[in-house]
Design a protein that fits this description.
single chain; alpha/beta; 2-enoyl-CoA Hydratase, Chain A, domain 1; six-stranded mixed sheet; four-stranded mixed sheet; 8 helices; globular
């Protein structure tokens, strides 16, 4: 099974995080591949817009695959390498010269939330749940990622999400400017 599925049709590149059995959790290899795919999409003159979505309706992405953390992030050096690969993937996506749209359905938490935040727009199904559970996982959000959220939703809302680890539904997310549009799940494609 292809964990990142890319298709291009009529100028629209659709990138699907394809691990529905794991709520589309992103492995370290997938973060690395995301950066490579973003470079490929930037160079493809036929691509006019990029849509990022998770497979199925239950999750855009549950974030980084925490089952890998004990091996991939077991000490400060490994964590730094891991975080560097995530940062490169997010930067590569954010720097695309083509518009990027996160089509978000279901859970969008942790690294999945960061991925969606690095897209230009977030269009959501009415079943979306956004969250940043770093307070529960005893992990940190890097300064650059924090700045992305501050830019999108302001300092107060960012701190609220980070320090409380609370989750937002679609309408709360739209009210603070996190998502552009909310549609009934049956209509979002």
């Amino acid at each position: 099974m292809e964990t990142l599925h890319l298709s291009i049709h009529n100028g629209v590149a659709t990138l699907i995080i394809n691990r529905p059995g794991q709520h589309n959790a992103i492995t370290l290899d997938m973060w690395q591949s995301l950066a490579e795919l973003a470079t490929r999409l930037e160079q493809d003159n036929d691509v006019r817009v990029v849509v990022v979505q998770g497979a199925g309706d239950e999750a855009f992405s549950a974030g980084g695959d925490i089952s890998e953390f004990s091996q991939q992030r077991s000490d400060p050096w490994q964590a730094k390498i891991y975080n560097g690969k995530v940062e490169l993937a997010l930067k590569s996506l954010a720097r695309l010269s083509k518009p990027t749209i996160a089509l978000v359905k279901g859970y969008c938490v942790g690294g999945g939330f960061m991925l969606a935040a690095h897209c230009d727009l977030r269009v959501c199904g009415d079943n979306v749940v956004f969250g940043m559970p770093v307070a529960q996982l005893s992990t940190l959000v890097g300064y650059r990622d924090l700045q992305r959220f501050v830019h999108l939703i302001g300092l107060g809302a960012t701190l609220d999400l980070l320090l409380t680890a609370r989750q937002l539904n679609a309408h709360e997310a739209q009210a603070i400017g996190l998502c552009s549009r909310v549609y009934p799940l049956a209509e979002i494609g």
